[in-house]
Design a protein that fits this description.
disordered N terminus; globular; 19% strand; homodimer; 8-stranded antiparallel sheet; alpha+beta
Chain lengths: 539, 539
């Protein structure tokens, strides 16, 4: 491990909330934030304690040969009970966490994984794969009663970079590696995966692959899928590795069936990943728009050009205000370009011109060149947004302690759907929040990823709660949101995954021939039905 | 149909060989070509005639309700018996075509397709989907004896553009449309799919999707997969349509299971396709290399840049000589850029600089700007290569009439494998040809598609034959080639598909978990096993 990464190992992960335990807002900060949200509590809920949970003895005992991989430690089990959605945090704060797994395993090899799966299959033990634990869709939380026990399969002991191919810019990486450790290993070679989801610090390569995570790039190769060159998958029925190929037309892509399978078909234990040279040329700018609809047209024009910005994120007025990118009611388009090949100033200037032609105002210069940014006011907006982006989940948890309902969700739809979709989410979720809580709610929108044929809107909802019932309020609002998405044939998830929370909408969205194929594949690969039961398919 | 396409309807497709019957080389041209290949015949084989084939009565009769969709006309049946591989042409010339289907159906709706599948399932009739019939891998030829009869399901009556979404640059297109008709329909809107495989005139959208065809672009989105926004699939078990989405993270991609399924899982009847504005800016250049290995390094440098050439094809000395791109023993790199956004001269100049830095010589200028090309000698090389590319399949058939063995195959591998892979294909296939025929053979190579992590080499083999046994000679050479590919873990096909000819290698390449899933999906979607039996999986 490199020096830069070393200090992280001394910090403690929060068992109930986002990220590092020492990074949570203190009580005073919670109170200050809560004061901004009508209908919240006067004082923060106390930090939940594992000691207050009733954690019973495990319902099963692992065989002696596997005992060294498995722990029944209550603190470890509690920290593996849920992901990090708002509803997970709210339930933890209210002393109602999800089902706590009986055991947590830390395999160190494919053989370990296969042996654990075999034992679990024989004993009807549900196996819930666990990477960084950052799921916000109920992906790592067992729900149900059909299994004798629950084993959380924590892959983070498998975190090595096994091979590097500099000429082909690829690396063979174990699935349990966390984002910073991976980049630390690649940096000395001048290479980078350049996959930076918001969860970067607290999510693993295997999790990214299993959930088809959206990454760094706002256009083009937005998703981890395109960077996977080969996968190794361990299933109860067979283990196999796809060949390292830059591209192949031999039958349906084998990897694409496991990308997005969310642990329901098998365990991805390692992957050859496509890497890139670290970009030497960077430039970014922010463009303000008085009218959101003009900004949408500007973004569409940029997305349909071949300028390929790395960042092309549109914040509506509420989102821009929340992040400090704008305080005058403007929407803000954050544009960023990067390259290891050539300066990107011309591309940025061209994109800013397109945005101006659609009514945008670039208050900083369109600065080009090597070291990043224009130095103008644009940079402040870009920087403000970046800081807010990384800090946001911690603030969410602080607000949750104030009894607020704070959550995000994302979707994607074709351009013809986008304006009405965003309007109706704002109005219908806003109305539902007022009805559920008696208070007005904030419903903000940003576009995080854009495509020639559509975009991925990402919504933030901040509302007062219903004391003790905050997760139920969110479930009500989310159901309203899901019905709007369904009406517009917008996907239930652009990159957060399906998990268990999105099953109703996923089932409505999934075409029947694929549903039949997926069920058949599940039966063939997981004949005992122990792999992440309830995810994607009924247990 | 637009005026531009109208004349085509007056021409006749060759039933036994490539393309238009009136475009085949005449006897004199065949003799002239044959003289260049040692071990060929003195005079061309006669053109095969359908009247000379023994075509029996169909073994089944369609039900009255479907009779209007189905023909038993011998000429139609004969023209649907095989694809257009060399081994298909050679067998036709020798009076040994593949199994002639009992019936040919021309459905005009999804309902027709579903009804035909239901009838076929009930009666154990094999259904072989047929688009343009340009398969070179035995994709449209029934082999086996497990079915009562064979129905060729010709989709070309379903050839409409049903909807157009200009804002989202997408169109809903029926699967049976041929390349030129599709572009004719899109041209008035300033849009293009820009998918131009060598078979463009004689292949359909459905065929491209079902085989994951490689298209126009040499880098980036090289494959039709990335342009499919939504698919409608009719299977014996269910019919369904994926949502139109620019991107989604909801489970494994449903479309990616049917892309590349080659008719074995269902019939793709229509698709929403992502389109593009027609490029206004074009520029191209050719760069010569004295040493092929230098050219490989140059291509790798360009592929690993973010310059994104539309064309980046490297011809080895033999291929360059054959196409007229070079006559001095040089390898030639053909670079082409295009854009609807901005002039591409800078990108071309940058790519040419990279090529020069690796030992290349650009004999034309790197000409930039709007109208295409530099006007220098480079243009002649580029133009020569383009003409030869489109004429090549006709010349192949002319040589086949001279008893030559003339075929191509393609693969893809990571950069670390490429030099040895190409060397060994040249030497081992060359040696096998000499052994099989007693004459030296030509084994040429070009790179057709390039990636940051590897490339797709495409090989052309021209050898003398063994009188009356030309297809068997090719099978021997191909088996040698496949073993070299397997040794280097190079894919059995970059874009020609698996079909029946590549089954041995595909089975060796396909990871076992995916094999299990694919078999299970096949059983669920095609319970009677009538869909393109033997393709991808055993019947």
């Amino acid at each position: 491990m490199s020096e830069a990464a070393a200090p992280r190992s001394h910090r403690t992960r929060s068992w109930w909330g986002w990220g590092w335990a020492d990074a949570h807002p203190d009580d005073a900060e919670c109170i200050a934030m809560g004061a901004l949200v009508p209908g919240t509590l006067a004082r923060p809920l106390p930090l939940p304690r594992i000691a207050d949970l009733r954690i019973g003895a495990p319902a099963v005992t692992p065989p002696a040969a596997l005992a060294h991989l498995v722990t029944a430690d209550p603190a470890v089990r509690a920290s593996h009970a849920m992901g990090k959605a708002f509803r997970d945090v709210a339930r933890a704060l209210r002393g109602r966490p999800g089902r706590i797994p009986d055991l947590v395993a830390h395999p160190r090899s494919d053989r370990h994984v296969a042996d654990l799966l075999e034992w679990a299959g024989d004993r009807a033990v549900a196996v819930v794969p666990y990477g960084g634990g950052s799921s916000v869709v109920g992906g790592v939380e067992y729900r149900g009663a059909a299994h004798r026990a629950v084993l959380s399969l924590d892959l983070t002991a498998m975190d090595a970079v096994l091979e590097l191919d500099p000429a082909g810019r690829s690396a063979l990486v174990q699935a349990g590696i966390l984002g910073p450790a991976l980049e630390d290993r690649l940096r000395p070679h001048g290479l980078t995966l350049r996959h930076f989801p918001q969860s970067f610090e607290f999510s693993t390569l295997g999790g990214w692959l299993a959930t088809r995570a959206g990454g760094h790039y706002a256009t083009g190769r937005t998703r981890i899928d395109d960077f996977a060159q080969s996968l190794r998958v361990v299933t109860p029925a067979a283990t196999g590795t796809s060949w390292r190929l830059p591209s192949s037309g031999a039958g349906p892509s084998p990897d694409r069936l496991f990308l997005g399978s969310e642990g329901a078909l098998g365990i991805i234990t390692q992957a050859w990943m496509r890497l890139q040279e670290r970009p030497h040329h960077k430039a970014s700018a922010a463009v303000a728009f008085a009218r959101f609809e003009d900004a949408l047209e500007a973004v569409r024009a940029v997305a349909q050009s071949d300028l390929s910005p790395a960042n092309c994120r549109l914040l509506d007025a509420g989102e821009a205000a929340l992040s400090g990118a704008s305080r005058d009611g403007s929407a803000v388009l954050v544009l960023g370009f990067e390259s290891a090949t050539a300066p990107v100033g011309d591309r940025l200037a061209h994109a800013v011109d397109l945005a101006r032609a659609h009514g945008g105002t670039a208050d900083g210069g369109a600065g080009s060149g090597g070291s990043g940014g224009s130095g103008g006011p644009s940079d402040a907006a870009v920087g403000a947004w970046r800081s807010a982006f990384l800090r946001m989940p911690y603030l969410r948890d602080g607000l949750a302690r104030m009894g607020a309902v704070v959550e995000t969700f994302e979707t994607a739809a074709t351009w013809d759907r986008i304006p009405a979709l965003i309007d109706e989410i704002r109005s219908e979720v806003g109305a539902a929040a007022r009805k559920a809580t008696g208070h007005p709610a904030l419903v903000n929108c940003r576009l995080t990823h854009v495509y020639p044929d559509g975009a991925a809107p990402y919504f933030t909802v901040i509302a007062g709660g219903r004391d003790g019932d905050e997760d139920a309020v969110w479930d009500e609002l989310k159901a309203v949101a899901e019905d709007v998405l369904h009406r517009h044939r917008a996907t239930i998830t652009h990159h957060h995954a399906v998990g268990r929370d999105h099953r109703r909408s996923y089932d409505r969205q999934r075409p029947e021939p694929f549903a039949l194929a997926l069920r058949a594949a599940k039966s063939a690969l997981d004949p005992h039905g122990v792999l992440n039961p309830g995810v994607l398919l009924d247990a």
